[in-house]
Amino acid sequence: MLPATTRDSVDPHPGSGGRRVALIISLVYLATATAWIVFSDAFLLGLTGDPGLLSRLQTYKGIGFVAVTALALFFALNRYVGRILDLLGRVERQRDQLQQVRERWTEAFDAIQDPIMLHDAEQRIVRCNLAYAKKAGLEVKAVIGRPYGECFPRSVRLPVLASPEDRGVPPVEFSTPDGGHHLATPYPVAGPDGTPLYTLHVFRDITERREFESSLAKLNRALKTLGEVNRVLVRARDEAELLEKICRAAVEVGGFTLAWVGYVDDDLRIRPMASHGDRNGYVSGLNITAREDAAGGCVTGIAVREGRVNVIDDTARDAGPRDCLNQARRMGYRSMIALSLKSKGKVFGSFTIYSAEPEAFAEDEIALLEEMASDLAFGITTLRNEVKRGDLEARARRHLEQLNAGMEQAIEAFALTIEKRDPYTAGHQRRVADFAAAIAREMGLPDDRVQGIRLGGLIHDIGKIYIPSEILNRPGKLVQMEFDLIKTHTTVGYDILKGIDFNWPVAQMVLQHHERLDGSGYPEGVKGDAILLEARILAVADVIEAMSSHRPYRPALGPDAGIEEILRHRGTRYDPDVVDAAARLLREKRFDLAPAPFR
Questions:
Q1: Three-point CA angle 391, 392, 394, nearest 5°
Q2: 3-state secondary structure of 147
Q3: The pTM of the whole model exceeds 0.85
Q4: Which helix (H) or strand (E) holds 204?
Q5: In what order do the strands lie in the sheet with 346-355?
Q6: DSSP label at 278?
Q7: Distance (Å, whole) CA 465 – CA 490
Q8: How far apart are CA 302 and CA 306, in angstroms?
Q9: Is 10 strand, coil or helix?
Q10: CB–CB of 133/125 below 8 Å?
Q11: Which helix (H) or strand (E) holds 210?
Q12: pLDDT per position as a tens digit, 568-580
C-alpha cells in the first residue's frame, strides 16, 4: 500500500492528461490547416493577380504543406514509435528471461532425486518431477492429469491441505508392494490471494532407515536376551531353574511370544521341560518326534533330527507340514526358530522360540541365538557334571564381548552407508568417535563410559539419512529452509535410536550433540548441565573435526582453527573441561585428526 500523500496525488484516470494535450494539439493543427487551405488561396490571388502564377504557388504550397506535415509526423514517430518498439523489445527480453528461469527451475525440479508431486483437491496430478514419474513407471506427460492413486502411491490416502495454515500436517509413512518404505511430507501451495490451489508432496525413501532400525532392534533384542541368559547361566543352581529362567528371559527380555525347551527321549520323542508364554496349553499339547514322520516334520523335530537351526519365516506361506503350521498360526505365531542343544556333538534337546511377526529372525540375530543355544547347552552340561563355575563365567564374558563387538560392527556398517551419501564427510563419524573417546579418556572417565561415547560418535549423524544428498553435497551456501532441514538430523537420529535399549544414553547423545551451554544450540536450546556430558564431549569433537576437514563449501581449516574456535567460546558454548582436554590432546600431538580409512 502506498503512503497517503502519494495515493492522494495519483490521477484516478491515468493517461487522461496525455489525451487532453493530444486533443488540443490535434484541434490546433486542424484549425491551422483549415485556415491555411481556405484563406491562403485568396491571399495569394490578391497578392499576385495572375491565375497562372497562383496555380504554381498552390503547387508549391501543397508541397510545403506535405513537407511540414511529414516533418511533424517524423518527430512524432521518432518520439513515440521508438518508445513502443523499445517497450516491445523489453517485453520480448523479459519473456525470454522468464522462459530461461522456467527452464532452469524445471531442470532443478527434475534434478531432485526425491519424487515430488503436486495434486489438486480431486487428487489429480498437476505437476511432478522425473523422479516421481520414474517411481510411477510412466512418462511425465502420462502422469499429468491422472489421480495419484493410479500412479504412486497406490492404495494410500494422502492429506489434502486446504489452507496455508495446514503446514503442520505430519508426514505419512507407507509401504510399497516391493517391501519399500516411504515418507510423504505434504506442503500447501496457495495463490497470491491465499486461496489454496494444490498440495505438494515430497517422497523420501526410508527403506534403508527402516531396515537398519529393524536389524538394529533385532540385534539389540538378541543382545539383551543373550546377556540375560548368560546372567541366568552364572546364577542358576539347578537345571530346572535354569530352563525356566532361560524361557522367561527369551519372552520377557527378548520380547518373543513363546519359548520352550525340550529334551529328546530314547524313542526320539521331544518332551517339553520348561516354557514361558504358553497359551491354552499349546506346548503341553505338542506331539513332536525327531523321527521322519508327520510329528517329526515340524520345525523342532527337523532341528533335532538334523542337528541344526531350523527357521519358519512365515507360517502363512511356508511349505512345511500343514498341521504343524496351521496349529501355530491359529495360536497367532507367524515365525519360529528351533535350535538344537548339543553336548559333545550329540543332540540332546531343543530350544524353540516363537514370534507373532513374520520374518522376525534376521541373519545376525539367528547367529546370536545359536550362540545362546550353545551357551544353554554348555550351562546344562556344566550343572550336570559340576564343572567349575569359573569356566561358565569366562564363557559368558567372552560371548558378551563378542556381542558388543558385533553390535559395534553393525553400527559401523550403517554409518559407512550414511557417509557414502556424503563423500565430503567420509570418515567424519569415525574420527569424531575416536576423538571423543580420546577426550573422555583424557578427562578420566571409566572405560565403559568411554565405550558408550565412542558408540554415540559412530552414529551421531545417523539422522542425515533423511536429508537429500543434493543438499548434503551442495558446494554453495544453503538457503534457510535447506539449513533448517539439515538441522532436523538430530531429532531424526533420536527417533531412530530411542527405541533401542543400549547400555548407554546413545539416543540422547545424538539428540544433543548440537546443543550449546548458553542455549544457542539446537534442536531444543537446552543449557548447561541439562546437556549430557557425553553430548558435550561429542559437540567439541564434532566442531574440531569438521573445521579440520574439507567441505564442499570451503577448504579444510586445520586443527588450529578448531582449537581457536573452542577456546573462543570456552565456558559459553562449550564445556571448559572438555575444551581443555581436547586442546591438550591436539597441542601435545597425542591425537591425530588426519582422515583414516573406515575400518
A1: 65
A2: strand
A3: no
A4: strand 196-205
A5: 270-276, 258-264, 346-355, 335-343, 310-312
A6: -
A7: 11
A8: 6
A9: coil
A10: no
A11: helix 207-235
A12: 999 999 999 999 9
